[in-house]
Amino acid sequence: MTVSALGTRVERQPLARYTTVGVGGEAEIWFVETLDGLHEAVQAPYRIIGAGSNLVIHDSGVPERVIRLSGPLAKADLTPDPGLSDPVNGLIVTGWVGGGTPLPGLLRKLQALGWSNLEGTVGIPAQVGGAVWMNAGTRFGEMFDGLHTLEIVTPQGVRHITPDDLNWGYRNSDLPRNHIVSRVRLKLQQSTPEEVQARMTHADDARKGQPKMKTPGCAFKNPGGVSAGMLIDRAGLKGEQIGQARIAPEHGNFIVNLGGATAADVLGLLRLIRGRLAPALDVPLELEYEIWPEEAAADLR
Ligand SMILES: Cc1cc2nc3c(=O)[nH]c(=O)nc-3n(C[C@H](O)[C@H](O)[C@H](O)COP(=O)(O)OP(=O)(O)OC[C@H]3O[C@@H](n4cnc5c(N)ncnc54)[C@H](O)[C@@H]3O)c2cc1C
User: Fold this and answer.
1) pLDDT tens string 253-263
2) What's the CATH architecture for 223-300?
3) Cβ distance 93 to 186 under 8 Å?
4) At the topology level of CATH, where does 2-72 sit?
5) Domain residue ranges of the chain, discontinuous segments joined by +
6) Which residues form the active site (predicted)?
7) Distance from the alpha carbon of residue 173 to the mean position of ligand 1, in angstroms
8) 244: which residues sit within 8 A by CB, 6+ positions away?
9) pTM of the full predicted structure?
């Protein structure tokens, strides 16, 4: 372990520890806790990792430093801002919520307060910054439903913007890669804990049937609106296994790590699915998740 000039902890570690599928080789990880630390960390080639819930990282890792938001940048100040909130109309604008804050824990706190707007994102195992960057969501709601201000860090400095400054849309914030969402202010509507819980339960019900094991989430986008999971199922691929990675028997569009899988195992299954379905499809199957480094799976793009 070393410490940077501005006090950031820097450690070489397997990235497998920081992805939900649990695969990925080593990189130099910068556990950044302050805006000054972020400014220092982005002065050399870098990547930013959130909860790693949309990533498959190659077994040889990545050469760039990998930034992980930690400490205060992974905590939420939910105190309503008196200058921005409007209690008469039930509008709450929070203090700063760190981009490294785990989304599931944040949603539990919002539910307890009876604050609405983000409950449609229930069940997404992301950090706030990663979920904002992708505008993660479900058919019940998405991250941009509850955003007031975004704080963005790049090598050029720190800027504050609002959703109106972005051309955001479906699963897309419009933020370029490596524009770090360091903190956000949330815009919420006063409801009741019971009502928020009821909407969360309803949204979560749609997840029944998804595997509970280590996974990077859905593998492929639905080609032309047809369910990729159904196509994989019909091709008889559910349960196929390479090494310790398996196409989930519960849902064909999920690859799971049985314990000890490598990125090569996961990529092998992705290639198997693509190759088997290709003859029947007009368009190639498109990956849902990112592969780091991108060259490791250029054939899957
Ligand atoms: C079981 C499961 C269920 C899922 N269900 C859904 C779902 O219903 N809907 C949905 O939309 N997604 C879903 N996902 C996918 C995933 O959770 C989302 O894509 C999420 O937005 C990824 O966030 P993350 O913090 O894990 O980002 P990571 O996977 O760590 O990174 C993904 C991308 O975001 C960038 N990034 C991460 N943090 C930041 C930051 N602070 N600032 C800027 N860029 C950043 C990374 O550089 C990378 O490009 C699911 C995944 C799993 C494993």
Assistant:
1) 999 999 999 99
2) Alpha-Beta Complex (3.90)
3) yes
4) 3.30.43
5) 2-72, 77-205, 223-300
6) 171, 218 (proton donor), 288
7) 12
8) 257, 258, 259, 260, 261, 262, 265
9) 0.97
